[in-house]
Structure prediction request, 96 residues.
Amino acid sequence: MAAIFCGHYDRATVSTLTLQPFFIYNLPKGWYLRSTAIWTYDMRNDTFFIPVGLGAGKTWRVGKDIFNAFGEPQFTTASGCLNSGSSQGSTLHSAA
Prediction:
C-alpha cells in the first residue's frame, strides 16, 4: 500500500509553476511599501493567475525583538487559459 500525502490517492495530478516578483521600498521610521503577489501557472491545464498587490507595513523593536506587521490586498489582473486567450478579472486576495 502506498503512502498518501496531502489528499486522497485518486485526485487529479497537479503540475504548477509559481513566480513571486517582489518590490519593497523602505520609508522613514520603520514604514515600508511592498508588492509580493504570487503568480501561478498550471502547466497541465495551461491556465494562469497573475495578481498585483500594493501594501504597507511597519517594523518596530521591543527590547531585542523585532516585530513586523503589514497589509497587502491583491487583485487578479489577468487569468485564463493560454490555449484560448486570456480573460481579465478582479478577484480580491488577502495576504497578511
